[in-house]
Amino acid sequence: MTGRPALVVGLMSGTSLDGMDAALVRLNSATEAELVGFVHRRYTTEQREELLRALEGEATPRDYARLHVRLAEWAGEAIERLLAQTRVKATDLAGISFPGQTLWHEPTVVSWQLGEPAVLVERFGAKVVSGFRASDVAAGGQGAPLVPLADVELFGAADHPRVLLNIGGMANLTYVVRRGQYEGAFAFDTGPGVAVIDAVARMIQPELPYDRDGKISAQGKVDPKVVSELLAEAYFHLAPPKTTGREHFGQDYAERLYERLPGADAVATAVELTARSIAHAIATWVPDAPEVVASGGGTRHPGLWKALGRSLEVHREGVTLRRFDELFFDGDAKEAAAFALLAYLTLHGQPGNLPGATGARGPRVLGAISGP
């Protein structure tokens, strides 16, 4: 699919709940993408707590309804900053990709996101694509992960297999045999990313949004017995396709860990759990991949990055671990940029899921289009 270059804004509010990402992407086709600009609109403490209450089921119907609109308003603020930074007019946009905030993810049954697209249509006068996961779920899929299509089209290597790893609130990976080759590609969530680490860290220092610079975990000691017991959990041994979220590895999970290991030891143990669960997933399902290219907030956690490198080496000597930034662009922009591509495909009537990643019965055009 080729045509005139299209400017699309991709948005992302992930399971880390740190803020709203907005990426402006120039797409010449589904295989040619250029990052024009990127901004991160950080959530305030109050906004983050509002999201957490909703995720934990502590909100009223009125709270959910108002958050549905407020989330779109926060997205609008991120877009305003992005357009000002790049000196691009809203009238120049081919579309806006708004996946919203996942509040409940129950694979093959429902995946529910908040975020009212009409707010963005009214504010910017552009087409808005939203509700990406429903079509895949209706086709028997998990509704996630959806970034793998971009991994195959844009970020695979030309001459060798590559694992594209994202460490956000949850961690997920895509295995790409060769760039542009769908056969053999698959993806899945490995388990917790930084969600459990940061939730436990906030129990120690509530004023911190996350384990900043890995300082709390660095003060603790890993409990190998607890890590082994946690890794015995069924999810880590399920064959892909599989997805998970805060419904499983969220606040309740973190509180149970903290009851067993109070203090910094719990954070250090959560770091080791994330690193080893990722390494175990790679060793089990993609043992032939010589290279792991990682993005997401977890790559900036010093302790997690070191533990991940060490854990990968235990399973496969010589595997290369690199940050996404080294090969492409700012790794923080990756998921938002990937959703810009998904919106571009939807606007052109093209499928955006990868059945090998989600388990859907086949390719599906994703999302609904709102606006002119």
Q: What is the structural class?
A: alpha/beta
Mean pLDDT, as a whole number?
A: 94
Low-confidence stretches: none
Globular, elongated, flat, extended or rod-shaped: what is the shape? globular
Task: Give helix % range.
Answer: 25-40%
- Radius of gyration, CA atoms, in whole angstroms: 19 Å
Total number of helical segments?
14
Percent range for β-strand residues: 15-25%
Major β-sheet, in short? Answer: 6 strands, mixed
Strand order of the largest sheet: 3-2-1-4-7-13
Helices and strands, with pairings:
Blueprint: E1 2-12, E2 19-29, E3 32-42, H1 45-55, H2 61-86, E4 95-98, E5 101-106, E6 110-114, H3 117-124, E7 128-130, H4 134-138, H5 148-155, E8 162-167, E9 170-176, E10 186-192, H6 195-204, H7 215-218, H8 224-231, H9 251-260, H10 264-285, E11 291-295, H11 302-315, E12 320-323, H12 324-327, H13 334-347, H14 355-358, E13 368-370
Parallel strand pairs: 1-4, 4-7, 8-11, 11-12
Antiparallel strand pairs: 1-2, 2-3, 5-6, 7-13, 8-9, 9-10
Helix pairs in contact: 2-3, 6-9, 6-10, 8-10, 10-11
Short description:
Helix content is 40%, strand content 22%. With 372 residues, it is α/β, with parallel strands linked by helices.
